[in-house]
TrEMBL record:
Protein name according to UniProt: Uncharacterized protein
PROSITE patterns: SOLCAR
GO BP, one annotated term: pyrimidine nucleotide import into mitochondrion
Assigned protein family: Belongs to the mitochondrial carrier (TC 2.A.29) family.
Region (Disordered): 1-37
Topology relative to the membrane: Multi-pass membrane protein
Major location (coarse): mitochondrion
Bias type Polar residues, positions: 1-19
Cellular compartment(s): Mitochondrion inner membrane
Cellular component GO terms, alphabetical: mitochondrial inner membrane
TM stretches of this protein: 131-150, 170-194, 233-255
Length: 384
């Protein structure tokens, strides 16, 4: 009797355990099925999770510009000093031709900025570490709206022009890039003038050619420029800056084309992770930036020269004398620079600019693409 009871109890316990195991397995399969069907997708109903595509592009562009601006600020300072120093040399009209005049422009060549390393040494000797971040305030203030406006307008223009459906996407990308570049340039030119002024000024006791101003901060520069030179000073160099739209007209169509080439390549389509996507974006941004900078660099020198000239009498001249700017417009600036310094002046600081601009462009575009991808889940379905 006891053995039969024990046996029955064992059989019942075993059946119960089997039943519980089956039930547990079913529950696990149901749970797996539930979670597989309900992937981490944000709910579509609550509007608080929805972002407009315009905000996503603006925020992504601003973040990208902010990150690249901070990283490349020291190189930007060096590049600006190399571009601007020729404009601070006393104007000498050549007697025996351009070459004779140009040879006398730098009476103390050893004290001038020369190359990336030489300029960095002078900055370190005169201003220390902080000298490499002179103008960081305007960079932060400038890159945020610049890229926010640029990428917003650029993506919107592509949609309006329907780049995907266009028979000539190159033309669409060029027009979109120029519209976006024009909008961002007009909106942010005053900030870039202040940045250029701050970066171009040297230490008060420097032996290099001195800028005719000494600003203590971004706010001080803005107040002083407005008080001494008026509102027009903030739009110095706007014309060559707008001519510089040729830069983005070259860079972004090439970037789109290189992206298309890498996207269609075997490496891009391989199932080996996101590494190939990152490689494609980096390669596209680097190649497009090198091509654009090489083709359009002289306009940057002209823009810097016009931004760093005061719109009032300097060098001890009487305020009653009529003000005659050194560079009177883009054409006159080109002629003056060529006559006084030769054609090499149009490429001053180009090597430093490449070292600065190429990684800055790669970081900007990579950050932008990453932010757009990550924030894309927040865009309301069907939003334009």
């Amino acid at each position: 009797m006891t053995e039969r009871s024990t046996s029955n109890h064992f059989i019942f316990s075993k059946a119960s355990d089997t039943s519980q195991a089956r039930e547990h397995t079913n529950n696990e399969s149901e749970t797996d099925k539930y979670w597989s069907q309900s992937a981490p997708v944000l709910p579509k109903d609550p509007p608080r999770y929805h972002l407009t595509p315009g905000f996503v592009h603006a925020f992504s562009g601003a973040t990208a510009g902010f990150a690249s601006g901070i990283v490349t600020c020291p190189l930007d300072v060096i590049k600006t000093k190399l571009q601007a120093q020729g404009g601070f040399v006393p104007s000498i009209r050549p007697v025996g031709g351009r070459a004779a005049g140009a040879s006398n422009l730098h009476p103390t060549p050893g004290a001038n900025y020369k190359g990336l390393v030489g300029t960095a040494r002078i900055i370190w000797r005169e201003d220390g570490f902080i000298g490499f971040y002179r103008g960081l305030g305007p960079i932060i203030l400038g890159y945020l709206p610049t890229w926010a406006v640029y990428f917003t307008v650029y993506e919107r223009a592509k949609k309006v022009l329907k780049a995907e459906e266009s028979k000539n996407p190159w033309f669409t990308h060029i027009i979109s890039a120029m519209i976006a570049g024009g909008c961002s340039t007009v909106c942010t030119n005053p900030i870039w003038v202040i940045k250029t002024r701050l970066m171009s000024q040297a230490h008060q006791n420097t032996s290099t050619h001195q800028a005719p101003w000494q600003y203590k901060s971004t706010l001080d520069a803005a107040k002083t420029m407005y008080r001494v030179e008026g509102v027009r000073a903030f739009y110095s160099g706007l014309a060559p800056a707008l001519l510089g739209l040729s830069h983005v007209a070259v860079q972004f169509p090439l970037y789109e084309e290189f992206k298309r080439i890498f996207r269609e390549s075997e490496a891009w389509n391989s199932n080996k992770g996101e590494f190939y996507n990152v490689t494609g974006i980096l390669a596209s941004s680097i190649l497009s930036k090198i091509c654009a900078s090489s083709a359009t660099y002289p306009h940057e020198v002209i823009r810097t020269r016009m931004q760093t000239q005061q719109r009032v009498n300097g060098n001890g001249k009487s305020a009653n004398e009529p003000f005659i700017p050194r560079y009177r417009g883009v054409v006159h600036a080109v002629k003056t620079v060529y006559r006084e310094e030769g054609w090499r002046a149009f490429y001053a600081g180009m090597g430093t600019n490449m070292v600065r601009a190429v990684p800055a462009s790669a970081m900007t575009l990579l950050t932008y693409e990453f932010m757009v991808k990550e924030m894309g889940v927040f865009i309301e379905p069907g939003a334009q």
